[in-house]
Amino acid sequence: MRTATRVALTAGTKLAKMSCRAMNMKSTLTTATQDGATALKRTVRKGLYVAQDWVDEAAFAIKRRPLKSAAIVAGVAFGLGAVTAAVAKRNCYGSDYS
User: What is 9-72 written as a DSSP string?
Assistant: First the structure.
């Protein structure tokens, strides 16, 4: 009878220790997750500030040199149109053009 009691106490003690370790692990993981979420929010916020700065700088550059900005936009649009037409022609007729 004493052996069964001793085994039960030992098992209970081990279970209590494992429960304590599990609680500590849960606490550690929760803290790490919260720290990661905070870092992610901070990074997104910084990214939004940088994007807003770029938009402001672009608006300032367009106001300062409107003709140059329009020429750049026209050149980029023409280039994209030419690339799109070449890709469409290649896909339509195949790659040998014969």
Answer: HHHHHHHHHHHHHHHHHHHHHHHHHHHHHHHHHHHHHHHHHHHHHHHHHHHHHHHH-HHHHHHH
